Structure formats: structure tokens, C-alpha cells
Backbone:
């Protein structure tokens, strides 16, 4: 029987659900972004020039409805008052509604990012992304560059400052993409190691399969084995059912944007259904974070490598079947319209 490309899209979610032991339910979770709290929510904020470290993670300096009861003497920081506002949202919400704050961090610059910039996106997508490297640099399951390390160190220093000065709530849970030691796994380690975290909120990240980048064709998005990840990061944990080898990546098909969004929606459903934490950290990728933002109806907001975006999410469990959606079939690599390996000029 010949392979049908559209089956690949459904395999991604189906395999995960089988691994997690989940069954279908007569309800679904509807997500919305609660706007008015972060500059990244505002249409007037330019993602290209935005620096989260210059503006308190983007938290808007504003009063809250709960300030009178919580901070009548105006002694608390903006983050402390925001934390109380979120606490009040959860306390007053019905049993089918919950609020979480997720810090979505993009990994530091990797060698695949450098290669795409060097060759250009068209040549990268049609030719170079399928290679393991160019003979000088390897980008399969891409490692982080020195610039990427510095971006993660910048995030670490900013977290240290915010925890001390602004009393920002530390994440209660840490989730990371499984894509390689010097990309997401390493970025998370550099970002959160050495911080003075509350004893009840230690940095013990969990590796989650569906938090990875768009799947297929690009070798930089093919993950290493579970054994290799565990050997490199022995303190990291794995979600239940995490496979030894990469069951999702294919060399000939690339996941479409709607399929990535559906996958990230499945990830969010898992987190909101099984994790009682209010503050959560994701360390992931530009495409995966963009898909997650679409899944929660957030405005488009592209992150540069190493950047972080916090979002306040309202999740409501709705009885009945979810709205039907159409997910386009996975696609092959685009054809090159120009020579991707031009000879150097003299």
C-alpha cells in the first residue's frame, strides 16, 4: 500500500495520545489570552525591537482591581500585585475555568539559525535544511552557538534580578523541548541553574515530546535518543511514555503550520489537565511558540533567539465536541528556484 501524506499529520497526535494512555472525552478546553497585562499583548508593541529585559518581562505598570485589598499602602511590586490578581481570578472562577501564566522562552541561537542566515531562507528550506551540515558546521539536532550561550546567560541574569527585586513568581514547573543538549535542553539549563529559587519550586525540567519544533525534513528538528538525553542531562525527567527514539520525524515530509498548532493545542490540553501549577516555563522554538500563541488566540509575536514572552491564559472546559477543523497534509521540501550552492566569486 502506498503511503498517504495526510496520515503523517494525524500520526503525530495519535502516537502521543497512545503513549499517554488518553481516551477521547465529551468535552474540550477553549483557550483565550487575557490581554491588558503584558506589552506583548498590545498591537502597538513591535516584536522586532522589543527587549523583555528592559521592561519587567513586559508587565504593564498599571493598577489592578485587587490592589485595595492586597496592597492598600502601595508597598508591593508590580509582579506581587499581578500575582495576587491571578490568584483572585482562580479563586473566583468556576470549576471549569482556570488561569495560568506561562513563560515561553525561545532557545538561544543555534548553528542552524546561523546557517539559515548565511544561505538565505529559500536555499535553507529547499536544500541545506535536509543536510546534517556543510562539512564545516553540523546542525543536525542543532547545538547552540557562543552567542546563544550569552543569550541564555542574559536570561539567567535577568531572572536573578527579577526574583530579587520584583519578586516575580518563580515557575512551579519547567517543561522543555527534547531537541538537543545545546539548544532547548541547554538553554533551559543555563537560564535557570544557579538561581535562588524557592525550595518548593526547584529547577527540575520535564522533557515533553510535543513541545518540539515543526517536525520533518529539517535535520535540526530531528531529536536524539532518550538514552542520550538522559546521559547528558541526568537530572531532567521525561513525561510518561516518552519514546527511546524519534517516532515523529520523517526525512521527506514537513508538518504544516495548522498541524503544528493542533499539536501544541494537544500539549496545552495535557498541561492544563494534569498540572495544577499556576506559573509554568516552556523552553521551545520559534515555530512551536508561534503555534502555541495561535492556539490561545494571542496576537502574532515573533521572538528573537533567547527571548521570553509571558502570557496569561484563561482555559475553560466546554462540554460537547470541539469545533471541527481541517488540517492540511504534510508537505515535501520546496523546489529550489536558484542554485543553493553557488560557486564563490573571484
Residues:
Amino acid at each position: 500500500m502506498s503511503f498517504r501524506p495526510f496520515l503523517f499529520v494525524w500520526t503525530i497526535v495519535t502516537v502521543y495520545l497512545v503513549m499517554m494512555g488518553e481516551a477521547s472525552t465529551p468535552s474540550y478546553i477553549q483557550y483565550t489570552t487575557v490581554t491588558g497585562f503584558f506589552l506583548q499583548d498590545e498591537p502597538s508593541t513591535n516584536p522586532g525591537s522589543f527587549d523583555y529585559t528592559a521592561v519587567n518581562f513586559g508587565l504593564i505598570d498599571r493598577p489592578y482591581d485587587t490592589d485595595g485589598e492586597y496592597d492598600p499602602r502601595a508597598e508591593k511590586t508590580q509582579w506581587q500585585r499581578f500575582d495576587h490578581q491571578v490568584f483572585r481570578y482562580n479563586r473566583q472562577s468556576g470549576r471549569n475555568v482556570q488561569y495560568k501564566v506561562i513563560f515561553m522562552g525561545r532557545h538561544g541561537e543555534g548553528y542552524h539559525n546561523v546557517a539559515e542566515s548565511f544561505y538565505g531562507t529559500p536555499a535553507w528550506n529547499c536544500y541545506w535544511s535536509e543536510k546534517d551540515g556543510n562539512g564545516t558546521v553540523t546542525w543536525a539536532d542543532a547545538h547552540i552557538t557562543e552567542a546563544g550561550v550569552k543569550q541564555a546567560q542574559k536570561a539567567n541574569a535577568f531572572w536573578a534580578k527579577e526574583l530579587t527585586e520584583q519578586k516575580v513568581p518563580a515557575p512551579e514547573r519547567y517543561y522543555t523541548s527534547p531537541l538537543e543538549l545545546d539548544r532547548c535542553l541547554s538553554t533551559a539549563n543555563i537560564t535557570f541553574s544557579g538561581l535562588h529559587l524557592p525550595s518548593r519550586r526547584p529547577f527540575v525540567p520535564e522533557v515533553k515530546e510535543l513541545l518540539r519544533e515543526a517536525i520533518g525534513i529539517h535535520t535540526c528538528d530531528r531529536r536524539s535518543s532518550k538514552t542520550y538525553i538522559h546521559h547528558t542531562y541526568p537530572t531532567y525527567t521525561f513525561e510518561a511514555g516518552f519514546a527511546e527514539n524519534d517516532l515523529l520525524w520523517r526525512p521527506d515530509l514537513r508538518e504544516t503550520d495548522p498541524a503544528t498548532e493542533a499539536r501544541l493545542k494537544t500539549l496545552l490540553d495535557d498541561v492544563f489537565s494534569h498540572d495544577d501549577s499556576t506559573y509554568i516555563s516552556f523552553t521551545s522554538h520559534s515555530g512551536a511558540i508561534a503555534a502555541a500563541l495561535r492556539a490561545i488566540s494571542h496576537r502574532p509575536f515573533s521572538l528573537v533567539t533567547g527571548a521570553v514572552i509571558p502570557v496569561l491564559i484563561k482555559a475553560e472546559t466546554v462540554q460537547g465536541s470541539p469545533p471541527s477543523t481541517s488540517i492540511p497534509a504534510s508537505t515535501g521540501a520546496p523546489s529550489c528556484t536558484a542554485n543553493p550552492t553557488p560557486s564563490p566569486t573571484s
Observations:
- The longest strand covers residues 308-319.
